[in-house]
Amino acid sequence: MRAAVAMLLVLALSACGGDRMDDLKQFVADSGKGLRGKVPPVPEVKPYEPFTYNAFDLPDPFKPRALKPSKGGGAIQPDLNRPKEALEAYPLESLTMVGTMEKDHSIQAIIKTPDKSLYRVKVGNHMGQNFGLITRITDSEVDIKEIVQGSGGDWTERTSSIQLQEQQEQKK
After folding, report:
1. How far, in Å, are 4, 14, 127 from residue 7 at the CA level?
2. Is 103 helix (H, G, I), strand (E, B) or coil?
3. What is the pLDDT of residues 41-90, one digit of tens each?
4. CATH architecture, range 86-165
C-alpha cells in the first residue's frame, strides 16, 4: 500500500511540472521589450577652487564701533572728554517733557525718564545719546542740537525737539 501512495504522489507532482505558465512567461518577456530607460548623463564635476578669507583686519560688523574723531579735522566734533550728564544715558525717543518752571528769570524744563525719574534741565545741559545740547526751552518744547557720526566718520549736526507730553497726546 505504501508503494501505491508513493506512486500516486510521484504522478501528482509530475502533473504540476508541466509548461502551463508559458503564456505568463511570454507576457513578462514581451512587456519589457521596447522600454529603454533614459538616465541623464552625470554632470561634470567642477574642480574645487580654494577661497582665502582676508578680512581679518576689517572691523567686525556685529560689534559697535568706537567713536573716533574724524581725520579731516572738521569743525564739528563732540567733546569726548566732557563728563556725561544723567540724561545722556537715555535715547531722546524715551524722554518726555512733562512741564516747565521758571527760576531766576530763566525757564527750565522738567524731563521724565523711562524709569519715571524727573530731571530739571536748562539751556546748555546735555541729553540723549548723541551728544545732544539743549539750545532753547519754551513752554511747549525743548530744542536740542545733536552731533552724530556718519558712516564715513565725519560728524554732522542735526536738530531735534521734545514736545510737552500733553501736546503729544492731543495730536494722537
Report:
1. 5, 11, 115
2. strand
3. 999 999 999 988 888 788 777 877 665 555 555 678 888 889 999 999 99
4. Roll (2.30)
